[in-house]
Write a structure and sequence with these properties.
two-stranded antiparallel sheet, 693 residues, homodimer, membrane (chains A, B), 29 helices, potassium:proton antiporter activity (chains A, B), 68% helix, mainly alpha, Na+/H+ antiporter like fold, 3 strands
């Protein structure tokens, strides 16, 4: 059966791929046939709109079938435990193949539907009314095209058709990806390493941006002297390049980490950094674009413009941050107040979805960055709102955003592959490309190593050198870099950046992504993997997102009170004592944490359930997995406290909770998660620890 | 707590509604301020694009907040068991309110971004390149506007901004609604009443279309003689009106039926008819538009043109039908062959979603009707693919499409409310409106009563007169009528139709929808409702879609072998013996159903699981709900056969299965669903039946 099954599978794959090309060529062939037909009739406009709609459908269909093909192949890979190529890398390969076919195989006759005209308009309005022999037609502005593109537009309409509006990436595809990242970022290990993550994400990204920018400027100056550079390439362009290429996206690496159960701290550092540096890179790049000195000579250095850019960075970032957090808190409040909403899971899920989406729209409407707002909204939702949802809605929302993330991510990567051949204005300059690879490498090194050294001065739980090498290696570039560089490809400099960035993404995803397993063993980073475990995880990890962090390393257990970061400690106490009781039904009642003078207020704000829950250990950062004997259900982030340990803690204070959680949390994990996790060789039997308490 | 809770709730509602208006006015106010700013700078185009993007975000935000508000209010209604206003009716009311505000309260200065120009173009190309002092700008065709609209475009840009491209409804919002309808149409009662449903949907819709068309033509002729009709209104326009207004959408009525557990046959008839007549109305209306006699005088009667239209109707309908079914079957085959895909629910769900979406795109790309293809794809998916999915994916797909349906439906209805005030070219003609209401009423009557009479001649289980009155009453018009009439509002006739249709929708949704409970008791249609039941259903019906049909009426049980329709019987045998074994893992092995000569083929096609399952009763039409003692999980459509009845049937033939299913299916339902269903007074205790067998 197995051999026959895989034979059938292959046959089907071939069938599906045939489908892609047949349907595509049908779509391509339908154009000219339709044209003759429509020439005979009067209603030209209607026919044309219909035809263009058909073409759009066919184009989108290509992508959908590409995604389908990717899914089927991924499944084969997963089934065969083939770890050298991640789904995103695969999506790129399929995109490349279709791109080659579109470019070189399919020949479409010159399209007559593009007309160039010289109009007597002194501006370029958003809406244009054209009077064609008495009839009015409405046209909307799509954008400016450079003079050398004009001929391309006329020549190869078909290739232009499969090119999406770049804003689609920013407004439709990125938000679910970023939200999902934020929504998955609800980990004790994240908050424990918060200081280091913030340092890597903020300081590190800025360092990386400027190091890359300076190196590229050197490269550009050299090229100019060698006569290799055709047009202008300013320092701000170099900095912009540095900013957009600093957004790391180690989705491939993290998928393998998750599968191999690699060290949780390393996982948290990489994941946290990559999530937050996306936000930093977006705002940084828009601030660099906004750097606009006064006067005609717009590419000189000016302190005022720099300060303005810096102010803009702070303003946009903090604005987006507060907007995201605010919407998250409003959603938490709604779900907290409308407790009976839990009976109607559909309404609950819909509300959650709409509120999260409105964050994006609100931020964009206010002039902030929607993607950044959505990220912080996701983190807030995971931290507060999630706890107020009914278990079904928790599953539903997780699954919904998981699906959206999966589709959007693979779409972007397959589009990336396609673009390498269908984009019309590639400028591949070998010297620039070599310089860029070097700069990206140096920039990443300048981010990781010095910062790790500084951070290690303050950390008890050091970031070891093999972890540093791994982080260096995991500096993959992905969706964010692509979306930022395709957003504006009007000038020579931007086109060159775009082409180079594509190559950087391809190289890092295929080479670094593919070599993760080798790198892990080369760096002797231990991981706990067995066939049984993979099998278990695929069976039991239903609806649990990809960073469950339930592997237990020996080093974990040594963390004690002194070891936890002071930042985390302050945050934890504030969150546990005040925010959680106000926004969720868990945590101690406010009456016990606020000073006595605030008693009436505390009474008003505390939910009646908080008193009932008081005797329970309801802590949502501990991420336990409940695998009950008979039910194969996994509650990702719900701590169900039914054991004696939990019941004992009722009278204690928050800081004790924290200690206990830090010291013993993982042991409980081992206890409850025994079916999932194989204890490591250096770990003591979990029960001894537990009983000692 | 309850009083305090509802007070808080109300306060929050006020807060949220304030939000809507504040954010809206902020968005509205931002335009002029931004304009001054941009005038100072050079990069006008970029600024303009940004501004337009902001405005778009703000517009979309209005709708998102409207939906949020709707959800919160619906929840209040559901919580208070207030049945007079359904969520769709509510969404319309909120839409109306915002429409009034946009129209009369907010004043936006005349926008300078629209420029009218006389270009020397002899056609209206899809893409226009405009040369503005050396720079090229690309414009895309949005559509033709009539001469009298030109001033509106310039005057009230803001109102135009909140107007969506009508194609959005057809290409984005309708498909999930229609797919969900098809995907929920997996009911024994549907297949049992298949003949009647097809009659109502096909014959009935055509009757209704022509009756309404003729009546409206009479009305139009009268109006012309009275001088009330300003411009042309042809007979084809009248027929078109008849076609689009014949698509019923009794979502409100069905929601109440579901809640009140009204007779399942009535439910199946109404639901099945409304799902299928949408498809008929779409294809019918496009065929009427395509009716185009040769020569100049394009509004005379011509047999050839009629035949061409009729051929087109058949071609498009059967094409869309076969495309939808084909994609459904391909998906079923993939999920059947890639059995190990079940281990990766995310991939499975994504694949299902993509394949269903590609149906739509494929149909549109081939020139068929995507909505119709999606409907039949949904039915096929529910019937075959669904059975091959893992239980988690079954839940996931159901929940996903439930959510999409919910959002899209409420969006359309709130947009409908908005359009009443923001649409610029309403033509409300009192005489036409009165005529239309009359015609709609007569058309519905001419559909239901004669057909019911004819059907009753053949049916053993008669459609009683109170059922007929209820079906007559439940002829609500909704999303499909709206989407079809907003699609083209270029001519005078179409504008008048659109305005009239809006009123028809409002009236039927509010009056007929709101009066359903009264009508039910007036018609003495019994229903089983109790507080306990509602409570139970909200608790246990997780992931089960809205037509679970698990109420048991006394009349149901009397159905015997002779009573089932011959159409159903033929279909059931073919499906059970050949299709199910090929496409799913259930059903008898093909080796036992095909003649012996086909043995090798049968062996090749039969899944190994089929032999294992042979001794099980795995019938997926019986829609059982498993409510195990401790787990509050509901498997909507999975029959888990653990009882003795199932084991006994192993050696029987398919027709026995059918009899048993028809005769005893409901009893098993009662047995397993005792926690959900209160036995009716005239039903015998379920156990007696069961033991007797």
């Amino acid at each position: 059966m197995s051999a026959g099954g895989s034979f059938r599978t292959l046959r089907l794959l071939v069938m599906v791929s045939l489908c892609v090309f047949i349907s595509f060529s049908a779509a391509a062939a339908s154009s000219p046939a339709q044209e003759k037909d429509s020439a005979m009739e009067n209603i030209v406009t209607e026919k044309k709109a219909e035809e263009s709609h058909r073409q759009d459908s066919a184009d989108l269909l290509i992508f959908i079938l590409l995604l389908t093909l990717t899914i089927l192949t991924i499944w084969l890979f997963k089934h065969r435990r083939f770890r050298f190529l991640h789904e995103t890398g695969l999506a790129m390969i399929y995109g490349l193949i279709v791109g080659v076919i579109l470019r070189y195989v399919v020949q479409v006759p010159r399209d007559a539907s593009v007309v160039s005209t010289n109009c007597f308009v002194n501006a370029s309005p958003a809406t244009l009314l054209v009077n064609v022999s008495g009839k009015f037609y409405e046209y909307t502005l799509k954008g400016e095209i450079s003079a050398n593109e004009v001929n391309d537009v006329k020549d190869n309409e078909m290739l232009r058709k499969v090119t999406f509006d770049p804003e689609v990436f920013f407004n439709i595809l990125l938000p679910p990806i970023i939200f999902h990242a934020g929504y998955s970022l609800k980990r004790r290990h994240f908050f424990r390493n918060m200081g280091s993550i913030l340092a890597y994400a903020f300081v590190g990204t800025v360092i990386s941006c400027f190091v890359i920018g300076l190196l590229m400027y050197g490269c550009v100056v050299l090229m100019k002297q060698l006569g290799q550079m055709g047009e202008d390439f300013f320092f701000t362009d170099c900095l912009f390049f540095g900013a957009i290429v600093s957004a790391t996206d180690p989705v491939t690496v993290l998928a393998i980490f998750h599968e191999l159960q690699v060290d949780v701290d390393l996982y948290a550092l990489l994941f946290g950094e990559s999530v937050l540096n996306d936000a930093v890179a977006v705002v940084l790049s828009s601030s660099i674009v906004a750097y606009q000195p006064q006067g005609d000579n717009s590419h000189t250095f000016e302190v005022m413009a720099l300060l303005k850019s810096f102010g803009m960075f702070l303003g946009v970032f903090s604005g987006s941050f507060s907007l995201g957090v605010a919407t998250g808190i409003v959603t938490a409040l709604i779900s907290f107040l409308f407790t009976k909403l839990r009976d109607f899971q559909l309404l609950e899920t819909a509300l959650f979805f709409l509120m999260s989406w409105s964050t994006f729209l609100l931020a964009e409407a206010c002039g902030f960055t929607g993607v950044v707002a959505v990220l912080f909204c996701g983190i807030t939702q995971a931290h507060y709102t999630f706890n107020n949802l009914s278990p079904e809605s928790q599953d539903r929302t997780k699954q919904l955003f998981e699906l959206l993330n999966f589709l959007a991510e693979n779409f972007i990567f397959s589009y990336m592959g396609l673009t390498l051949f269908t984009f019309q204005n590639h400028i591949f300059n070998p010297m620039f490309i070599v310089g860029a690879f070097l700069a990206v490498f140096v920039g990443r090194a300048a981010n990781i190593y010095p910062l790790s050294f500084l951070l290690n001065l303050g950390r008890r739980n050091k970031i070891r050198s093999n972890f540093q090498h791994m982080m260096m290696f995991a500096g993959l570039r992905g969706a964010m870099t692509f979306a930022l560089s395709i957003r504006d490809t009007a000038t020579y400099a931007r086109q060159m950046m775009f082409s180079t960035n594509l190559l950087v993404v391809f190289f890092t995803v295929w080479v670094c992504g593919g070599g993760t397993t080798q790198m892990l063993s080369c760096q002797r980073i231990r991981y706990a993997v067995s066939d049984l475990q993979i099998h278990c995880s695929s069976l039991y990890r239903v609806g649990v997102d990809s960073d469950q962090d339930n592997s237990v390393n020996g080093s974990e257990r040594r963390s004690t009170k002194q070891e936890s970061a002071w930042l985390f400690r302050i945050w934890y106490n504030f969150d546990h004592n005040y925010l959680k009781p106000i926004l969720t039904h868990s945590g101690p009642p406010l009456t016990s944490t606020l000073p006595p003078c605030c008693d009436p207020l505390a009474r008003f704000l505390t939910s009646p359930q908080a008193y009932e829950n008081e005797c329970q250990l309801k802590d949502d950062d501990s991420d336990l997995i409940l695998t009950d004997g008979d039910i194969s259900l996994t509650y990702g982030d719900i701590t169900v406290s039914t054991d004696a340990t939990g019941a004992h803690t009722s009278g204690r204070h928050a800081s004790d909770d924290l200690d206990r959680e830090l010291a013993y949390g993982d042991n409980e994990l081992v206890m409850r998660g025994t079916r999932l996790v194989l204890p490591m060789d250096d770990s003591e039997p979990p029960f001894t620890d537990h009983l000692r308490m």
